[in-house]
Specification:
alpha/beta; Rossmann fold
Length: 261
């Protein structure tokens, strides 16, 4: 695994408050600040100086939150956790997807630029930081193994798997099987198999690219991004995704060099 540098501040960002409840309870010396209409909680977690933040839902909200974290809090790396709809055939409910790259599936400036490419950038895909992603991959594998003993009824007996690859973001909650299938076909046609779809990660990746900020992201598959996508979503976030997030972040912090040194 590539060496991780010693850094001063880590941001842990989630889209939904349920995903951070366990982390907030473990935070020592907590200090709350409200900036740009958002609440941020700074403190110490397992010997690391961290700031917890909720991105809000959608790409603009996520970009604003990330910019505040950089400009106001001086973070030097960022971890994003959350849920996503499974697009790839192997990405089933209860699985974990570690992002290698992000793309905005609703960005389309053709014929001026290729489909999905954000004007001003060289390519449609935004890569995650290799070292941080490798550590997050290890944390995800640990979580998947631990989850096998948790007896989570919403997984209906499914053994959690860890996937790694491309995640797409857009300002749309995908709930139609036809839309999901078309996304899968479109990306497969250009040799970029898509694993999952959500609403914030690509915007965070773009802002982190602008600032040269190491960034990694992990998503728990909450649904198959089809006509059943709304079923038991709140229950899944509460009982499965929140527990995954807590387990993965705690494990990740053990893998990173101390930020308190």
């Amino acid at each position: 695994m590539p060496a991780l540098p010693q850094l001063a501040q880590l941001a842990i960002v989630s889209a939904l408050p349920e995903e951070q409840m366990g982390l907030q309870a473990l935070l020592t010396q907590p200090r709350r600040l409200r900036v740009a209409g958002r609440d941020f909680v700074c403190g110490q977690l397992a010997g690391h100086a961290v700031v917890l933040a909720l991105s809000g839902i959608g790409k603009v909200a996520a970009a604003t939150t990330t910019t505040v974290l950089v400009e106001r809090f001086g973070i030097q790396r960022l971890i994003f956790t959350g849920v996503a709809g499974g697009i790839g055939a192997g990405a089933q409910v209860g699985d974990i997807v570690v992002a290698q790259q992000f793309v905005q599936h609703d960005m389309d400036v053709r014929p001026l630029f290729p489909r999905w490419q954000v004007p001003g950038y060289d390519a449609p895909l935004f890569a995650c930081d290799a070292a941080l992603t490798a550590a997050l991959q290890q944390a995800a594998q640990h979580c998947a193994q631990a989850a096998q003993g948790w007896q989570l009824s919403l997984l209906a007996g499914h053994t959690p798997q860890v996937h790694s690859g491309l995640i797409a973001s857009g300002d749309q909650f995908i709930v139609a099987a036809q839309t999901s299938a078309q996304l899968r076909v479109d990306f497969q046609a250009v040799g970029q198999p898509l694993l999952a779809v959500e609403m914030e990660g690509a915007a965070i990746a773009q802002v982190c690219a602008d600032y040269g900020l190491p960034f990694a992201a992990v998503r728990t598959i909450s649904d198959r991004a089809d006509d059943s996508a709304h079923v038991d979503f709140p229950a899944f976030v509460q009982s499965v995704a929140s527990r995954y997030a807590l387990e993965m972040v705690q494990r990740l912090l053990l893998l990173l060099p101390s930020l308190a040194a």
